[in-house]
Amino acid sequence: MSGIDAAGRLAEAEAQAVLARERLSATIGKLQVKLNPKTLARQAARDVADKSGAAAQAGLNTAVRNPGAVAGATAVAGLFLARHRIASLFHRKPKHKPGYRDHERGLGPND
């Protein structure tokens, strides 16, 4: 009787091993699909697009709620970008050609 019982337990263990191998094989197949570099890149691109779209929508909603702040920030940014041109409007232009110094004798072109 112990021989029949042992053979039954062995057959049951082999069947469980076959099922475990099938589960492991299916899990490995799923992991290979999920960890495929192309799949990861596509998922990352989708995530970035979703997050950037949400951020853009949030920024748009904020701009709609606070148009004065947006106008002020735009004006400050414009002034910052044009600071050199604005500063050049306030600089004095030389009366003479560059290099001509009439206040020091011997340094001008005609001396």
Q: How does the major sheet shape up? A: none
Count of separate DSSP helical elements: 4
Helix content percent band = over 70%
Number of strands: 0
Regions with little confidence, pLDDT below 50 for 5+ residues: none
Order of helices and strands: HHHH
Backbone shape:
rod-shaped
Structural class: mainly alpha
Please state the average pLDDT score.
85
Instruction: State Rg.
Output: 39 Å
Question: What distance lies between the first and last C-alpha atoms, to the nearest angstrom?
Answer: 130 Å
Please describe what this structure looks like.
The chain has a domain at 2-66. It is 77% helix and 0% strand. The protein has 4 helices and no strands. The longest helix is centred in the first third of the chain and has 33 residues, at 2-34.
